[in-house]
Amino acid sequence: MDTKKTVIVTGFEPFGEHKVNASWSAVQELEKLGLGEDIHLLVKEIPVEYKAVSELLPSLWKQYKPELVVHVGVSGMATSVTLEQCGHNHGYNRLDNCNFCPYSQCCIDQGPDCIMSVIDMDSVCKIVNTSRLGVAFSVSKDAGRYLCDYTYYTSLYLGNRRCAFVHVPPLGKRHTAGDLGRALQAAILEMLKMLKDQRNHGQDGNHC
């Protein structure tokens, strides 16, 4: 019997000025590193398309029943690896790679305005910033109202908040794909420890 827990980590395809999307490059590096023998790591590249995200995420949650889903996106403004605490339901008026945006400009009809991850990103950030990775981490509560935020909110909604989102800077700004892959590994391992502690203590994390 396979007792391994599944962790899904996604990155995005190229879009706009990001001809090579650092998020997917970082996730591919993470795949090489793995998350230890007890974790089945599954990686996926996600289209920068609202409709594709809305179709793909429910199937991922249903099929694999993951312990945790971590979405990774690139931010041209980021100078550090940024741990996003929450996702937002409204304000999606930027066109995607198919020149489409939701008519309602929201993720989930009648969903809450904001959903917080069960993971305390401030605590994760403090721990990984004491490591010797040579990569700085920070925390944000605004993932940007584009496909990153849209994906995060949708996944938080579907997965009972057992989800995280990480923004990485573009490649070459300060770090290589290898640097970012190691940073993702360190952060996700801490997130998994936190989930285990919450389970042992009967906690369910943050509320909006």
UniProtKB/TrEMBL annotation:
Assigned keywords, A-Z: Cytoplasm, Hydrolase, Protease, Thiol protease
GO terms assigned for molecular function: cysteine-type peptidase activity
GO biological process: proteolysis
Top-level taxon: Eukaryota
A family per Pfam: Peptidase_C15
Record PANTHER family: PROTEASE FAMILY C15 PYROGLUTAMYL-PEPTIDASE I-RELATED (PTHR23402), PYROGLUTAMYL-PEPTIDASE I (PTHR23402:SF1)
Assigned protein family: Belongs to the peptidase C15 family.
Name assigned to this protein: Pyroglutamyl-peptidase I
Species of origin: Coilia grayii (Gray's grenadier anchovy)
